[in-house]
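writing this on my phone so excuse typos. first protein, seq and then structure
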Amino acid sequence: MTQADQTQTQRSQPNSGKMALHFGAGNIGRGFIGALLSQSGYRVVFADINEQVITALREQGEYDIHILDQNARTERISGVSGVLSNGPEIVPAIAEADLITTAVGPNVLRIIAPTLARGIEARAAAGGGPLNIVACENKVGASSFLRDEVLGHISEEGRAYLEQNVGFPNASVDRIVPPFEGEHLLDVGVEEFHEWYVEGPGFRGEIPQIEGMKVTDDLMAYVQRKLYTLNTGHAIAAYLGQLRGLDTVAAAMQDEQTAQEVRAAMQQSGAALVQTHGFGAQEHAEYIGRIEQRFTNPYIHDEVTRVGREPVRKLGPKERLIGPAQMAKELGLPVDALLRGAAAALYFRSAEDPQAQELQTMLAQDGLAATITALTELPEGDPMHAEIVRQYAELSH
């Protein structure tokens, strides 16, 4: 047995014989959460509506992750399978799972909730033990949101079981997983960096031991640190980059003006995060520096149309542009660089993104001021609303 094999065996011991059900067999599911679960010894069953991907997972039982970084390498993920999330096998899989995770996108959580409710009812009827469901999404409180959605579809008996036995710990996840074309359908490319924080008090029963998962009692600090730094900078790089005719985030960050504006926005959100959550100022400055390095990774071809998609959601009042601006404003801190990002988001175009088209329709039919209010919940006359209008006009030149 090689040293690598020994390491894998040691990793596998804590969860040997356990099954994790992961909703979402896309790049993030396979390249991040599902991979960590497999590397921690779980038998991972992916649930998705993509029949081609599910068939490949069932037939092959393994796939490769390509680390797109200076330390380039390939990792084989094995012991995996798949079920259709709208098929007959999904409810028994929920009833039998030792852990459930998701990476489906925030808007899909509502769609999978009825299925989870049926599975939890089946688990209750079978006398199943504690279960934890972790929604690994770019959404503050995603697991709590999913819990509320499940409760809307569950019977009284299922609700009683859920209240006592099913945990929905919230999580913060961070890994850039760009579109990737490998030799095989299931191949996925990822950056080397990854971070996964989960709130400890949200678990029911024993907290699972998963390599790469960090448990914390103060999750909101890490959720907001990631959403208001990495996601903020990523989105602004995409929106400003597209305005300047740049196709990828890396290309946008090679443009000196764009890089300065992205950095300024992350520094403004950072000042608010340091005051709000007590992060060390130097520590957070280094965190921003690491993110800038990730954005400029030449091995990752991350198109601005992918990163900027769903601008309607991303302009929401608690999202990555307005959320940190509100936090900073309440502390009396500058917000102009953050609001420049919001103004740039209003220009976003993508023929493949329904929300981009919805946004442009709103602007054409309702006008700029009303659209800003509808999306951000900032009333006309609010200084931040006025600043977005001003920056929008400035960006048009």
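second protein below, same order as before
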Amino acid sequence: MPASRSGLPRRVLASRRRAELLQLLREHNDALSVAEIATEIGMHGNTVRGHLDALVESGHVERTTDARGTPGRPRQVYSATGAPSADRDYRLLADILTDHLAAANPDPGRVALAAGRSWALANKPHSAPPPRLAPTTSTGAPGEPPDALEPVLRMLSAAGFAPELAEDRSVIRLRHCPFRELAARNAAVVCQVHLGLIQGSLACQDTTVEATQIAPFVEPGLCLVTLTSASAI
């Protein structure tokens, strides 16, 4: 039976309530406390805590400490990790390939960037549930169609990045990294793959916008992709 990184079977998601709880966390950009989850899902806090413990153990949920500086003991908060719900788990393969790429190339970031770009050019952005978009009606770049970036944002949303386009269209905020643990260990490879993916996706669109750099983890759970427009240079 397929197992998670902890060796627990994927049967952990056979529980309807756990699957429902995991879906709730995936729909929220911010980590939630037990009390917040219990309120939203209509379940007793102790029951929620038990389900969360199982999801943390299986690798589907991450438990962190909320360090907001409020009085009292810091809260424990929970967020989805991006681990797949299906039986297939490619984490080991991703670890192996990332480590090999980092060790076998003098400039792994450049190779990773090219790999992400090539993949995106061969697999054009597809339709997906629309991401959260900031208003763009009056702040777009000169001559830029208001929906030119939408296919790219849809692609990022489908991949689990929870993207948000800034009102001035200069930045894409990535609110959730589905490869968080891997990126934290080897950002030079993983984050450059993501930048290449965005660059290739933009190259597939009728747009003068380019993604020039990615700043990983500027805040916990937030990465920034810088956009520039050739028409404005």
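Residues 1-10, 126-146 have pLDDT under 50 and may be disordered. thats all i got for now
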